[in-house]
Amino acid sequence: MKANRPANLRPGTLAALALAALLPVACAQTGASTDTGSPRLEILDDEWQLAGFENSLDLSGIAAASKTHVLVGSDEMFHVQPGVVDFAKQRIESKRPIALPIESTGKKQEVDIEGVAFSPDDNAYYVVGSHGLGKKKGDFQPDRHSIYQVPVDPATGVVKRDGIRRASLLPWLEKTPRVEPHLKQPLQQNGLNIEGLTWSGGKLWFGLRAPNQDGRGLVLELAPGQLFDGGKPAPMKVHEIAISKGRGIREIAAVKDGFIVLTGNASAEASKKIPVTAAPGPDTRFELLHWNGRDSNARNLGRLPENGGKGEALLVLDDTDSHIEMLVIFDGLPGGEPMSVRIHR
């Protein structure tokens, strides 16, 4: 399986060299696994900033096409926002938003963007909506059931504003027996909801917040060509990850030896329209796991410190034989308040 190198902000070794010179030494270690030989999780004192992004309290997905160009999504918009990375300043600066094609015409227009990935094979980002019902009202909104291909200039990593294509995973989900019963069901009651997306080995990997099936989180695998090049809908490949009951996948990021998975509550909090929820408690515990992408076993790398936000997106900065460095972006905090972490292999 090929690792998702471009989404690590380094198609080659340039970003690794830049980070080695620019990223400061880690400070306090936290959440380390007690398993012998397990990777260790450290929280770094780097103060990265996502600057100038609209709806900055609701940033929900990020991926990189090169060491300097990223694309950011917000779950309250139908736009995506390109960004430019400055390693020296530890800053990602927003550029002009790009509208995605949508169906709705009312006052409330959103795709509920939950994941962004970059494919070097296609020179394109992929941006996915939750494919779930509205969290508060449990209503079906067509634009949430969208996935977009957003092309980039292979020489520069800059988004090509023309040529954005739209599809939906719904026909494939309807043919996948493991998840079909959970379609169009409320998230409070284990209804299907996509929250993570990454690219690896020529495939898109979708992390599901829900359903959680008896302590198993689900990852769905599909080649992008099946969606955008006239493929006939067929069952998606389903992977299981042991994450315990009540937990869901909130983001997934490919690395050289598998995937880093961010987990939180599988179910949403109750609402007036949906007063009963399977959520075990407040959505305040977020953990990082390492999953090899083959079997259901996952190593718990550690729990992230609580900061008042909800763990929402991952951006891999560096991926070496000795460690992984990444940013964790939080929903509900200004500019996502990126948390810089290092995972020691």
TrEMBL record:
UniProt signal peptide: 1-28
Residues annotated as domain DUF3616: 58-139, 166-331
Protein name: DUF3616 domain-containing protein
Key words, A-Z: Signal
Listed SUPFAM superfamilies: DPP6 N-terminal domain-like
Protein's organism: Luteolibacter flavescens
InterPro entries xref list: DUF3616
